[in-house]
């Protein structure tokens, strides 16, 4: 693997999931592979799971790790070509990416969208400029439009826990007080489209995702109808895509879409975390036996580890 910035970088998904599960059984089997190789994690946004699981994954492979909170610790980066840099940006991505490539063998980047400038977000200007100017492989730790490490962990989780050959998986929009990105939903849908699952997406009208994401996946506006006989219910908020970055749902819609034990039925509950209790999902679901969110977060380590292993194998 040369990089992991989108699901398109996966060549054989089933083999990748199987290899991740092997690493889960035997995490230190390749601890020589990453010896004297350094992973540099650059965070433009907050993180708990991605930061700790990716660092753990790298250490399991024998790598060294440097973590940098870019917004608080680094110079403010300029991404535009030809800008007269006489305002608030101090360093251009052209120098920064080349310099960081001299210190690290793999660069991982988290950079959320603006949610105000759709064209800029869809150009993936942060991660695509790292790919363009870095001379080492780049890993996406959640960009403006994609969270492929999360989606791989989700695929591992469903593969491990499914009791059916072709489970019914529902992605259900959830209420949230803030405007959130589309990245997790986009990558989860993209991943499920690659798997042998029966996928349905449900959300209130006005929260349609991009056509490029949905493709021919069924969208059902009636949440109860969508959730019927589900095996896995993946819950996530996103802001409007059409009315870009807006939160247009009424308070009534919000309270009606929260996942309760009654709505979940016998399905397994999934969420990428962090999750707002009693807004997105009722306490009784998260604290109940059908919630798999903790194991899902555990699988972030093996999702990152299998990706780093593939990248290291290509470096050596
Ligand atoms: N990395 C997992 C999700 C990150 C982000 N969630 C958030 O920002 C939630 C923050 C809050 O609940 O305040 C998102 O939706 O893309
Ligand atoms: N799920 C996830 O990416 O969590 P963090 O935002 O805490 O990294």
UniProtKB/TrEMBL annotation:
Molecular functions per Gene Ontology: amino acid binding; ornithine carbamoyltransferase activity
Chain positions recorded as N(2)-succinyl-L-ornithine binding sites: 142, 176, 236, 276
Binding residue positions for carbamoyl phosphate: 47-50, 75, 110, 147-150, 272-273, 300
Gene Ontology BP term (one): citrulline biosynthetic process
Reaction equations catalysed: N(2)-succinyl-L-ornithine + carbamoyl phosphate = N(2)-succinyl-L-citrulline + phosphate + H(+)
Occurrences of domain Aspartate/ornithine carbamoyltransferase carbamoyl-P binding (ranges): 3-160
InterPro entries on file: ArgF'-like, Asp/Orn_carbamoyltranf_P-bd, Asp/Orn_carbamoylTrfase, Asp/Orn_carbamoylTrfase_sf, Asp_carbamoyltransf_Asp/Orn-bd
Domain Aspartate/ornithine carbamoyltransferase Asp/Orn-binding: 184-308
Its EC number(s): 2.1.3.11
Enzyme class: transferase
Keyword vocabulary terms for this entry: Amino-acid biosynthesis, Arginine biosynthesis, Transferase
Pathway: Amino-acid biosynthesis; L-arginine biosynthesis
HAMAP family linked: SOTCase (MF_02235)
Function: Catalyzes the transfer of the carbamoyl group from carbamoyl phosphate to the delta-amino group of N(2)-succinyl-L-ornithine to produce N(2)-succinyl-L-citrulline. Is essential for arginine biosynthesis.
The family this protein is said to belong to: Belongs to the aspartate/ornithine carbamoyltransferase superfamily. SOTCase family.
Self-association and partners: Homotrimer.
Protein name (record): N-succinylornithine carbamoyltransferase
Organism: Leeuwenhoekiella polynyae
């Amino acid at each position: 693997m040369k990089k992991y910035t989108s699901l398109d970088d996966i060549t054989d998904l089933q083999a990748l999931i199987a290899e991740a599960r092997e690493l889960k059984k035997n995490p230190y089997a390749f601890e020589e592979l990453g010896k004297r190789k350094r992973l540099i994690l650059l965070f433009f946004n907050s993180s708990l799971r991605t930061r700790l699981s990716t660092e753990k994954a790298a250490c399991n492979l024998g790598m060294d790790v440097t973590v940098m909170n870019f917004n608080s610790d680094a110079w403010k980066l300029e991404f535009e070509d030809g800008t007269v840099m006489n305002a608030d940006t101090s360093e251009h991505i052209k120098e920064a990416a080349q310099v960081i490539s001299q210190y690290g063998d793999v660069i991982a980047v988290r950079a959320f969208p603006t949610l105000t400038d759709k064209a800029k977000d869809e150009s993936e200007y942060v991660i695509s400029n790292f790919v363009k100017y870095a001379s080492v492989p780049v890993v996406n730790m959640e960009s403006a439009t994609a969270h492929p490490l999360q989606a791989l962990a989700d695929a591992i989780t469903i593969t491990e826990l499914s009791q059916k050959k072709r489970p019914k998986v529902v992605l259900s929009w959830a209420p949230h007080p803030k405007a959130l990105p589309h990245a997790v939903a986009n990558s989860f849908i993209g991943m499920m489209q690659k798997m042998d699952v029966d996928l349905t997406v449900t959300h209130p009208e006005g929260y349609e995702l991009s056509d490029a994401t949905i493709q021919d996946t069924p969208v059902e506006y009636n949440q109860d109808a969508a959730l019927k006989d589900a095996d896995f219910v993946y819950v996530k908020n996103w802001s409007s895509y059409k009315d870009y970055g807006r939160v247009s749902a009424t308070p009534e819609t919000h309270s009606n879409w929260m996942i309760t034990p009654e709505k979940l039925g016998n399905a397994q509950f999934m969420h990428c975390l962090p999750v707002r209790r009693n807004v997105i999902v009722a306490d009784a679901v998260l604290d109940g036996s059908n919630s798999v969110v903790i194991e899902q977060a555990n699988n972030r380590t093996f999702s990152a580890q299998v990706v780093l292993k593939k990248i290291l194998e290509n470096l050596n």
